[in-house]
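Entry: DUF3817 domain-containing protein
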Amino acid sequence: MLKIFKVTAILEGISYLVLFANMLIIKTNNPELYHTLLRPLGMTHGILFIGYIILAFLLKKSQNWDFKTFAIILIASLIPFGTFYIEKKYLETKANA
């Protein structure tokens, strides 16, 4: 399940950045394309975000994450590039240990 969480973390981070790019770049340059992309991008990101949170709760006990580590993993999903940091710092270390 850790591999699934790692993939979900990376995909969630990518979807977050794509959603921001849609909001910041495409909206100003091409409003019609922005509205066309908003729903599928938002839905994809929402599903990946919920999956990330659910998987984090499921892995908390099996990975022996303390409260601080678990909180950092959850908060990282709200910050751009946060899930990439988590994947490298916490998940890579745990997978190799």
